[in-house]
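Retro notes - structure team

What went well: the batch runner handled both jobs without manual restarts.
What didn't: labels got mixed up in the shared folder, which is why I'm recording both outputs here explicitly, each with its sequence directly above its tokens.

Job 1
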Amino acid sequence: VLVLYRLALSDIFFGTCPEGQIKVITVGESYHDFFHSVTGYKKVGNQLKPLDLEKKEKDQRGWVQCRLGIYWIGLWPLYKVPYYQFDWPTITRGEKEEIERKSKKVNTIFFRFEYPLEFKGMETSDNFRMTVVIQVLVEVFCPELARFKARNWLNVLKAAIESKVRDFVGGKTFEEIRGLRTEKTLEKDNFVKDLLDLNRRENDDANPGMEDIIGARIVTANFQRIDAEDQKAIDALEKKAVAEREAQARLAAVEL
């Protein structure tokens, strides 16, 4: 058993998989299969799907897989769990939150993970450049598409979201965007719905959704931060607003 476990830790013949993650098995450079450790989900073909709790559907994995966390991979070195380079953004906590990109060789895929996506240079309708950070919870349910068809699936998803962010910011003035920074509004909710529509496009075979392209879907999304990039322009706009208010106050005093 000890030898078996040591082999599994190295993904030789057998493998282990941390909770909430997926590992892909390859033959040569090609996708062969995957195994997972995601509670409440089952493997159906090349996808993960939720168990039907109403039908009292049970975990399909065996006792060794569920209890010991050991999975059969195949005859090594023909069947392998390869490492690959993955780049993803994280938030660094300090005096000011910053988005930092990490890059690491990994051999698993997180089934669900929250990514802070930063979009710079988003212009308002009155030409103010904004930086928008959106926290996106993503679910990767088809590792074959994510790893072997889309290649860099997170970049594909970010590009699709960026077009929505650009349209959203471009349809509003700086004052309108600034008012959205802290308030929960219907406009924000509608924007999130637009993002969720990226997952699947019904009756549009010419423009498939993210589920068909990268094997992943957006579960939720929230505005993390909306900042102006040009502080001088902001200061000038605020001075103008103050001058207009003072002028209105003087006019009101004269009328009295």
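Job 2
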Amino acid sequence: TNEPASVPVTGPRHEDLVALAAELWAARGESLVVCGSDDPGAQALAVQAKLLKLYPEERSATVASTAAYKVLSDQRENETDEAKKLALLEKMARLLQIANKGASKPSWSNLRNESNHWLDLERYARAEPPLRKLIEAFTGDENHGDSVALYVTSDLGLVLMKQEKTEEAAAVLGTLVESGKAPLEASRNYALCLTGWVEFEDTGARIVPGVAEDPETFDKAIEQLVKIVNTTGAREKWTDPWYQAKFDLSFGYLRYSEID
């Protein structure tokens, strides 16, 4: 079989399985043997999969998922093949998804890592749940409140925008922009949610409508886009930031001119 020989299937379930997962965590997979494989990542995933199948509701499966994540994370750091690194990243994201769903208490690092991995993979719908959990659990937190207010909120606005949940994205990002602390990308995304933007696809360009319908809302968008045009990076002519900022502003004015 391909099952790890050391997975207990009888006896005190919780204690034995947590002990096994803790062993995996400490040894980073090196002390486990899976028939037909000497790959620590494969070993870790085999243990995690077996525990999850046998005891999906127990904390041990959650711990094993986190432990397997650490093994794959180490493996990915030493991997040079980009395709293999990408495949490992998706496995890591899925492991944290399992760990976070089963966790008795929200973990900042696990939730943030999961959201970042899905963002890196451009799997925006999957990034949304951990971002919402972070906001729910850590808003106002002494250690992480500032990061939530700025970066997690900014990321949530981005994933909503990428899913074309434009009205909700504009509301999330608008609050951040009004605070005066929005990162530059969040300010741009907020403006684009108001004016709309252009998606360039294999079949051609597609306009995603914005939520602005009146001069006052368009003025808010144009204000942000003008600020971006005047930033240091966008002021250098003929660079990618310069072209992008000019295009965003021109498109904003075009949409503004089309309102009744």
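One thing worth noting from job 2: The beta strands are 196-201, 204-209.
We'll revisit the folder naming next retro.
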